[in-house]
Specification:
- The chain is globular.
- The longest helix has 30 residues.
- It contains 18 helices and 2 strands.
- By secondary structure, the chain is an all-alpha fold.
- Strands 1-2 form a two-stranded antiparallel sheet.
- Helix content is about 65%, strand content about 0%.
């Protein structure tokens, strides 16, 4: 990475620092410009209702929130969504005679700290200033998470050995050509878990085989535990995968114990709050009785958290989550390079094989969990919202591919170019949408055709022993 010429030993580190500064500034500008000053759907309305209720009324019950009973004269919802303005968020559960958000409580409690501080500093008030409240909550939660995630990708790329230019290209791809961009527009837990996953993979990439110190295991455990508290589904799979990775890398039960000690406070806090609200250790929104309130849009047939597929339908539905009209891979086209390149890395037994297995294990287990326990492809949203955090393990693998196969930077540029079209169109409508992203299928088809053409051009221009990455993946599989 550093050129060994007189007077230039510090050139690359200086470039890295300048590039890092640029990443922070540009990601911050994107986050600020992206934040909307209203709640766009049930999801963020439910979370913001808890924040408002906790600070302004001292309760987790949201029945009196402006996001549950909006005022037409001063609504936190857009006038273009009359159903939202009339009925408020429907992402709620009823316990006894009280309504609560059906979202994990800890993220809202942490956001309440931000609201409390802003109320003291600038006089922010949710009820009288709903638009201002929504904007600030979005910037201080999803906006900050977007910046943290982008910085994490840049750091991960440096930790695996990429030079400044490919690090910057990889970070730009992540920030502008994936669903991370539209999910920065509104409050949501998925981009929060994306940021936590980014920090966790920074630890994984930096420590790797050197993860023998207790501090390393403690940091990874703390982040995995926080991930569980943010999203019990994807977070539980992250926690289990991190436990396995720690045991494999450290080869000491004591390290696993330290890792679990780091995770325990977050896991226990989530479970304690959940139990105090719903009287169950299960996710409160996975209990059918809690969703059986008059007018509820949720039934045992469409609620997430129960198994209801036949084997054939499970296979079809699982495939659609990746490749269908809301498909994760189709909306995040650069990840196709992670899939093809990951096969090659495993076949060649890369030094980071345990980390690659960790990335694959978390991604695959989360995919299969939601494929087995849902039927609605995550509802009204751009792509499958549950999988947004899985961008991080995907981009970790891409970083390794770029390091070991530098020519694939062209593949990343091509896929990111098409991916940015989808990301920008999704950004324009926001993450909460009932409709397909405009031009989705034509863009996906154009990406497939052009990537295939690039592979064929390489095959014809190289010598016989130089096989394109996509072809190596096909042969390996």
């Amino acid at each position: 990475m550093i050129r060994a010429t007189p007077g230039s030993v510090e050139t690359e580190p200086r470039r890295d620092r300048a590039a890092m500064t640029a990443v922070v500034l540009l990601a911050s500008l994107v986050a600020i410009a992206s934040a909307r000053d209203y709640a766009g759907g049930w999801n963020d309305g439910s979370r913001l209702a808890t924040v408002e209720s906790l600070v302004d009324r001292g309760t987790l019950s949201i029945g009196d929130s402006i996001f549950v009973r909006p005022s037409p004269r001063s609504s936190p919802y857009p006038a273009t969504e009359p159903d939202l303005v009339a009925r408020g968020t429907q992402d709620k559960i009823r316990i006894g005679e009280r309504f609560y958000s059906d979202k994990p409580p800890l993220p809202a409690i942490l956001m309440a700290g931000s609201y409390l501080m802003l109320r003291s500093l600038i006089g922010l008030d949710a009820e009288s200033q709903p638009r201002r409240f929504c904007w600030w909550m979005t910037v201080t939660s999803s906006g900050v998470a977007y910046v943290v995630a982008a910085v994490s990708i840049f750091t991960i790329a440096g930790a695996v050995g990429l030079a400044t230019w490919p690090r910057s290209a990889l970070t730009a791809s992540f920030a502008l050509a994936t669903m991370a961009l539209p999910y920065s527009r509104h409050v949501n837990g998925h981009i929060l878990l994306l940021a936590v996953a980014g920090l966790l993979f920074v630890c994984v990439a930096r420590f790797g085989r050197r993860s023998t110190r207790s501090a390393h295991a403690l940091a990874i455990g703390t982040l995995a535990g926080l991930g569980f508290a943010i999203d019990v589904g994807a977070g539980s799979m992250l926690l289990l995968s991190a436990i396995a990775w720690t045991g494999i890398r450290c080869r000491r039960l004591s390290a696993v114990g330290v890792m679990l000690a780091g995770a325990a406070p977050w896991v226990l806090a989530h479970q304690a709050i959940n139990y105090s609200i719903a009287g169950t250790m299960l996710p409160a929104n996975a209990v059918a009785e809690n969703l059986a309130w008059p007018g509820s849009p949720f039934t045992p047939g469409n609620m997430t958290g129960t198994l209801r597929h036949t084997p054939a339908h499970f296979v079809e539905y699982a495939a659609s989550l990746l490749l269908g009209k809301r498909g994760f891979l189709g909306h995040d086209l650069p990840l196709l390079l992670a899939v093809a390149g990951g096969v090659v890395l495993v076949r060649h037994r890369a030094a980071e094989l345990p980390e690659i297995v960790f990335a694959a294990a978390w991604s695959t287990s989360t995919w299969l969990l939601y494929a087995a326990s849902s039927t609605n492809s995550s509802g009204a949203c751009a792509s499958v919202r549950w999988f947004v955090p899985l961008l991080v393990p995907g981009y970790y693998v891409i970083a390794l591919v770029l390091r070991d196969h530098p020519r694939t930077l062209a593949d990343l540029a091509l896929l990111s170019g098409w991916g940015s079209v989808i990301a920008l169109l999704a950004w324009r409508v926001g993450p909460w949408t009932r409709h397909l992203v405009p031009l989705y299928w034509p863009v996906v088809a154009a990406a497939a055709v052009s990537w295939t053409a690039l592979a064929r051009w390489r095959r014809s221009s190289r010598s016989a022993h130089e096989v394109p990455l996509a072809e190596r993946a096909a042969i390996s599989s």
